[in-house]
Structures are given as C-alpha cells and as structure tokens.
Automatic annotation (TrEMBL):
It comes from the Bacteria. Keywords: Membrane, Transmembrane, Transmembrane helix. This is Cytochrome C and Quinol oxidase polypeptide I. It comes from Ornithinibacillus halophilus. The chain crosses the membrane at residues 12-33, 45-69, 81-101, 107-128, 140-164, 176-197, 218-235, 241-262, 274-299, 305-325, 360-379, 385-408.
Amino acid sequence: MKIDTNIKLPLSFILFALIAFVVAQIILFFSSGELVAGQFRQPDIWMGAHFLLLGFAVMIAMGAMYQLVPVAFLTPIWSQTFGFIQFFVTAIGVTAFAILLGVKPNIAVYGGAVVVIGVLMFILQMVITISKQEKRNMMTYFVMGAISCFFLTIIAGFLLAWNIAFGSINQHNTILATHVLLGVAGWFTLLIFGFSYKLVPMFSLSHGFSMKWAKPAFVTYVVGLISLILSFWLNNGLIQTIGWFIVMIGFLFFFFDVKEILAKRVKKKLDKSFAFAILAIFIGLGIHVVAFVVSLIGISDQATWSWLIFLYIMGWIVFSILGYLNKIVPVLWWTYKYADHVGKEKVPLLKDMINERWNLILFSLFIICVLGLVLSALLQLGILVWIFQGLLTITTLLYTLAVIRILFV
Ligand code: HEM
C-alpha cells in the first residue's frame, strides 16, 4: 500500500503559512499602538491574529497532517487531488477573510464563508482517511478531538463574522469566548498533544515508555474544555475556575508522559529545534497554572486575559510549531531528494541541512521578543512594545528564510 504523500501538497501549505507568518507580524508591528492599549478587538488586530492563526498555524497544521497522518496512522490520504483543491480554496479564503477583517469587517463574512468551505473539505478528507485506519490508538482520539473542536471553532467564527455584518445574534461575547477557547485550546492543544506522542519519541529516540497518562490527559482536558464553555454560557465564575483547574490537570498529565518519554531517550543531547518545542510544553503548562490562579483570585480585567491568550498562542502554539517544523522540513526534503540515492552516490547527511548555530540565535530571539513584548505592554512602555514587535517581525522573516534555505540543500 502506498502511504506517502506527494511532497508538493504539504510543501504548498508550509510555504503559504510561512508567508502569512511574516505578513501577520508586519500587521501587528503597525498596530503596536493598539497592542499597548490592550485593545485586541480592533480590525487591525483581528486581521493580524487571523493571518497568524489561520494563515500560519492552521495551514502548517494542515500541511503537517497531510504528511504525518499517513505515517502515524498507516493509511494513505483519501484523495491528494482533493487535497490540492482544498489548499487553493483555503488559501484564497484565509487571505480574503483576514484582509476583509482589517479593512471592511462588515463584509468579512463572505471571506469567512470560503474559509469554512476550505476547512470543511479538510475535515472531510481527514475523517475519511482516519476512518480507514485499522487499529485505533490514543493518537486517533487526540486528532479526532482536535478536529471536532476545529469544526465548532469555524462555526462559532462564522457566527461572529455574520453578527458583525448583520448583527442579529445577542450572545456575541459568549460566542467569542467559546470561539477563542475551542480554537486555541481545543483544536491546537489537542493536536499538538496527539502529534507529540509520535514526534517526541521520534526526535529523542525513546523506547519502552508507557504513555499511561495519555487517556487521562485526553479525558481530563476535554472535560475541562466543556466545563469552561458551560461557564461562559451560564456566566458562572465558580464553574469557570473549576474548568481552568481541570484543563490545567489535563495538561499536567500530558506533561508527565513527555517527562517519561524524555527520561527513556537514547539521544542524550537534544538539538535546538526540538529543545524549543519542549520548552513550549513548559510554557503551555505554566500559562495554564497562571490562568487558573488568575481566575481563582477573580481577576477579570480584559488586558490581563488578552495578554495571557497572546502568550499561550505565541509561547505554546507558535513555539511548538516553529520547533517541530524546523525538524519536519529537513526530513521531508531529505527523504524526497536523497533517500533513493543512498549507497549509489554521495548524498548530504540530514545534519548538513540544519544550522544549529543559526537555530540557537533565532530561537533565543523569539524568546526575547515575546517576553519583551508582554513585559513592556504590561508596563505600558509603548516604544519598547514597538521595538520588540519590530524585532519579532525581523526574526520571523529570518526564520522563514532559514526554512526555505533547507529546500536549496
Ligand atoms: C482555528 C482557527 C481560528 C482561531 C484559533 C481563531 C482565534 C480567534 C481569536 C484569538 C480571536 C480574538 C482576536 C482579537 O480579539 O483580536 C478571534 C476573533 C474572531 N474570529 Fe477567529 N479564529 C479562528 C478562525 C476563525 C474563522 C474561520 C472565522 C470566520 C469564519 C473567525 C472569525 C472571527 C471573528 C469575526 C472574530 C472577531 C470577533 C470579535 O472580536 O467580536 N475566526 N478568533
């Protein structure tokens, strides 16, 4: 059975995503005034946020899934041609939607409709592909859970865009909270959990680990998400604090498994990209702890929560993606270009494709920028926010060029 995907499919998603990543940072750079004021619900920030979350993070997740699902689930992608059509529909939809959110939010719903079609095509592709898997495992549950959250996120997003256009729904803020939670914590977090069970052992060469926390992590995290959504709709602070506690414990269970996998690894010295993805796990857990404490002591101020969400998106989701992507692209490219030539002619080694010194500089810059941004925004130092966002934009561009350089080795 042929399970490998035509490399052009994941690569199209990845290249589009990298461009969107740079565009998002440029937009946020020009909106740094609104960032300082903690006003995230503005057209410019909606545009930057959706270029980052839909254009970059979602497109990378889709591209990575086209590559990883066949390998991890041992089943070929249902239809690669459908995959290419899905890529074009989603890319056009995301670009149109994000731009409209920034320049004409009252008609963004039309771009949003195209995004919804693209995402539904993706979900259909994945559901058919995964349903062909012979033996279900814990990863199947994480990925199916993530896809279910993704479905609800885009429905909620569509309702928000609809409401901005026609204004007929009363619960706008409740839908927004549900949308952000399901998108950021449901879809991305469950997906990263699931794929980490494959990628962490693979990149650290670990064997004989138990994964005994995987099921509790999945169940607890999902129960936590449901409690949080309930609390939004019932407007109940107590349930919300309990919800934050439960998702924190779910994350902790996942963390226990990663700890065990790493303890049983053969490869003692981790490379920079992978270490960065592991750092993201610590940041994700840390933010869950802070979210619980902030909810417990009753801080409901908008700016604090906005910056916590920002940190979660950058420090957990984006950092995980940046670390893993820098590992996946060389493997993808090496396999495509050189795997068949091994033994017949001299081929570059995988490590020749990776520049560890550059990675160290880039990842350090990412950490400095994100920390600098949050601290200077909380201290209301406008000029520093501007400088750190500018530096983040340059770092993003350099990272993008570094990934593209791999394709020229
Ligand atoms: C996984 C995908 C998505 C994620 C993670 C996501 C996340 C977010 C976040 C974090 C915000 C708050 C941004 C801010 O306040 O500046 C937001 C707002 C919004 N999202 Fe999404 N989004 C996603 C997909 C979508 C889609 C597909 C649509 C439309 C079809 C959509 C429509 C909206 C709208 C209209 C708002 C602004 C609502 C308001 O502030 O009143 N989103 N989204």
